[in-house]
């Protein structure tokens, strides 16, 4: 049986977005990526976007209450469809918020990666500001120059993918997000993946886990 509520947990640049794309096309999950939603809010200059922008530019987390409300309204619209949360929760209070709404997860996939690997990956990361698709100049190049394979819009290097900001985002991950691993380990739903492996290899390992009843270590 397919796992229907899944969290993708990992440092920035660990490959969550790339794997989410594969899971969506293979299993039809709804993909909810808080970073993408926030960037769209910033681009549209909504109230939320204006509140979030400064935090995002500095590589800091947007306050829990703002993100919680945003995610809850998205989840509400999904109804009973299977979904992947990518980039949420990122703090213990965010996980507690989901629990307080009665949302119970089937699996947390943790993408393990060190800072050195993150920095080298981010150095070549290209992102589509329109649809959120992500590519890498060497490991996963787009088919046509700086054009998004998914929607045809121009790819950019995100401001917060610069090395100094990446370091600060990684630090934030260690301090605020990594404790979630222990939180979900207690529920026995964590699968850990070595995220430094080839994209295809990780895809296969995750597919095995998502399609099975039993949760075990990859
Ligand atoms: P991402 O694309 O997931 O790396 O997110 C980009 C930025 O959006 C992060 O560095 C944060 O500033 C903000 N953000 C995304 N998700 C969250 C979250 N769950 N909690 C707080 N801030 C978030």
How would you briefly describe this protein structure?
This protein is α/β, with parallel strands linked by helices and 218 residues long.
What would you say this structure looks like, in words?
The chain is of the alpha/beta class. The chain has 9 helices and 8 strands. The strands form 2 sheets. A 5-stranded parallel β-sheet has the order 2-3-1-4-8, with helices on both faces. Strands 6-5-7 form a 3-stranded antiparallel β-sheet, with no helix packed on it. Strand 5 (125-128) and strand 6 (134-136) form a beta hairpin. Helix 2 crosses helix 3 (47-57) and helix 4 (64-78) packs parallel to helix 5 (92-100). The protein is globular and about 45 Å long. The protein starts with a strand and ends in an 8-residue tail after the last helix. The protein binds adenosine monophosphate (AMP).
How many strand units? 8
**Which structural class is indicated by helix and strand composition?**
alpha/beta
What portion of the residues fall into strands of 2 or more residues?
15-25%
The low-pLDDT segments are 213-218
Query: Cα distance, first to last residue?
Result: 18 Å
Largest β sheet strand count, sense and barrel closure: 5 strands, parallel
Query: For this entry, what is the oligomeric state of its chains?
Result: single chain
- Mean of residue pLDDT? 91
Task: Please report the number of helical segments.
Answer: 9
